[in-house]
Amino acid sequence: MEVxxxxxxxxxxxxxxxxxxxxxEVKGIGIRWLSKVVREKDGQSEYGLRLxxxxxxxxxxxxxxxx
Length: 67
Description:
It is a single chain. The chain has one domain. The protein is built from no helices and 4 strands. Strands 1, 2, 3 and 4 form a 4-stranded antiparallel beta sheet that branches. The relative contact order is 0.28.
C-alpha cells in the first residue's frame, strides 16, 4: 500500500462522472488519491482512500436509488 500526506498530492479537477448509464457534468469538485492498493496479479487498483474538495456552488448529479 502506498500512503501519502494529502498536502503533497496534486488535486485533480473532476469534470464529469458516469451515472445511470450516461456522463454527467460536475462543477467545483477536486479529488486527491491518498492511498491505493493495487492487485499484484493484474496491477489494477483494488480500492483507495480519496479526499474530495467541494468548492462553494459545486454541483454533482443527484444520487438516488429511486426511479
